Amino acid sequence: MKSLNTVLSQGMNQKKKHEVEILSAVVSSVANTVGAATIVDVGAGQGYLAQVLSFQYLHSVIAIDACSHHGKVTDARAERIKKHYESQMRNLGNMNSNAPKTITCRVMSMDSLKALTNTLVPENNDEQSRMMAHDCEKVDERQVQSLCPPNIGSSLVLAGLHACGDLSVTILKAFSECREVKAVVSIGCCYNLLSEGSENSGDHCGFPMSCGVKTVSLLLGKSSRDLACQSADRWRNLSKDAGLHNFELHAFRAAFEMVLSKHYPEVMITSPSIGRQGKALRRQQQRRILESQLRQKESTYSHSNVVEHYSVVGHGESGTSDISGLVSNMDNLSIKSEGDLSVDKCSLFEKFSLSGLCRLGLHPLVDINFRGIWKEVEPYAELVGVYWSLRAALGPLLETFILLDRLLFLQEQVNKLEVVMLPIFDPALSPRNVAIIARKVDATMQP
């Protein structure tokens, strides 16, 4: 594994840097083992993984994402990185610097990804460094064929870093059916977005994948798939205040469901999702409280009575513990006072609900009594933390079941694949840390 320099890691938070640093080494090793000419980063986002594989490990890389904005960001960022490396390489006399190529398209099915991978193996062509961005609602073989980077070789490795929902499943299915794809490295995410079907659903569902699990006829349901996204490591590292704030948001979400159930029953039938709504609201509130506390402390410290008191009693150095005690008491008074004045749960819930309705494209009705609904919920709010903690303890079990289904699906391809499932990230930094790594047994080009 190679450490990322400041140029490659620019813009990455600690979690993303940790993930990209490790996964790029794993993918590079797999690509070298099977002798793959090109790595395809599916669901590439802003291209962090693709750029490290391209610039640091010197692979030919194609980054695919459904968002055209991500493609533009990837291209712009890669161009800046390329200029940095070219300036270094001029000094070394080496000009071999290729940025990853980008394609914007919606890979919504295994057939579309198969079509794309098939067209990524064109006839020989001389131009190596062309970058591209292309928008298409549906993969069109002729369009992609005309845009794909020339001479990328006849073998591919598919990589997916936290490809959401069914996209991780699509990657694994395309790997098993496309002869051009020699290996895959997949780390799933967002199990709540998985489609789910029965034994007769064929290949059109994200869970279950394997024949073994399909014959059991065990369906998880949305609630269980939501739980599969929970991680004990994530909760374990929260401070007390952060944990309480998280549980408060869960209470808000539960109360918001009551708003929808009472005033928008037709929307409730569709199992609406408002995403991570409320966390920005909470951060803004915490920032206001912190700023108010700092202002109050500064005002208190500048008050002459405090200075006069300690100069009169003449504690000197021995009075340090007393001063600490005073500061501690001031903190408590500040928090209590600020809490009484600013933390109006009814107002916060109303803001949360209005934001949630906006996210769902709904107009607030004039007769919604947000404060009344919160007052009805508030006596039970303290139970949310206990209930959620017990419920979330089942998360790792459900995630393991989903991942084992994917592993079994690949293992059912008898005598065709070698597959392992390994935790490669620190779960405290990246809870979705299990990689499924597989290669076709006839794809090994090196011992």
Automatic annotation (TrEMBL):
Tell me which Pfam families the record gives.
Methyltransf_32 (PF13679)
Q: Boundaries of each Methyltransferase domain copy?
A: 15-196
Q: Which InterPro entries match?
A: Methyltranfer_dom (IPR025714), METTL25 (IPR052220), SAM-dependent_MTases_sf (IPR029063)
- Highest taxon of source: Eukaryota
Record SUPFAM superfamilies: S-adenosyl-L-methionine-dependent methyltransferases (SSF53335)
Protein name per the record: Methyltransferase domain-containing protein
Task: Give the species.
Answer: Rubroshorea leprosula
Classification from the root reads: Eukaryota, Viridiplantae, Streptophyta, Embryophyta, Tracheophyta
